[in-house]
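One thing: mind reviewing this one?
=====
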Amino acid sequence: MSKQTEHIRKPDWLKIKLNTNKSYTGLKKLMREKGLNTVCEEAKCPNIHECWSERQTATFMILGDTCTRGCRFCAVKTGLPNELDWGEPERVADSVVIMGLKHVVVTAVARDDLKDGGAAVFAETVRAIRRKNPGCTIEILPSDMKGDYESLHTLMDSEPDIFNHNIETVRRLTKRVRARATYDRSLQLLQRVKEISPHTPTKSSMMLGLGETKEEILEAMDDLLAHQVDIMTIGQYLQPTRKHLFVEKYYHPDEFAELKKIALQKGFRHCESGPLVRSSYHADEQVSKTAAQRRIDYMKGYETQESKQVDFNF
């Protein structure tokens, strides 16, 4: 375990570009009106201004705003969650239509209080989005659902375009960084998705700067590939509050570029790697060609239905 007790200075090149144009402020207002949560806000994502200003993708956080776990890297509040809101899937779907999103990511707080980990609400959210905005590709980012594979089947029955589940860090640091989750359970979950749906791209993310070594990063890459993971994202851990884990190293952009090169050489289909990269960063570029073509075909067919006039702003 790290003995660091003081902050290290954030480098000058690690800066977040702010953009509070009408698109950004409009989306923020919409989220409040619909009573929705986004991981973009709750987890203090550094890319929120870029993504929301471009209106290409957004990450909705369902099942409430309170997580039953207390991971030491995460800014989402923890405690006893509220009752399930079965109206949430329709509100999310309506918002996707209004925003004209090309790609949507649906994630959730961990709900260990629920037998299925919230899989049923998750699946209904995917179906609602597809009903109301068939031209939008959908990525899901669930918790490990305590390793319950019946719940995983419930989730996969909704046929998402990408399944994303993050290992977050290297094996050695998992117990210190993540609450209740295990490194191997996450790998097994990703593998099981391929057994259920071989053609669905799988994805996982790591954050760096928590004390891992380069050798451990490369081992994690190998572990993900051994479990048939297609896409990897790598970003810099940024301490959200003083109560969370300290940053032990800020990786230079050149180091991230090198890791991306290695990841692609090792066999990942796609890799996003950079200081401000997060799991959903440029997510719309990571859908499979099959899913992207299906989105185009849906739009062509949808536009022929004169009774449904919706501008998706593609």
In short: Residues 14 and 275 are 7 Å apart (CA to CA). The domain at 22-300 is CATH 3.20.20.70 (TIM Barrel). The chain has a mean pLDDT of 83.
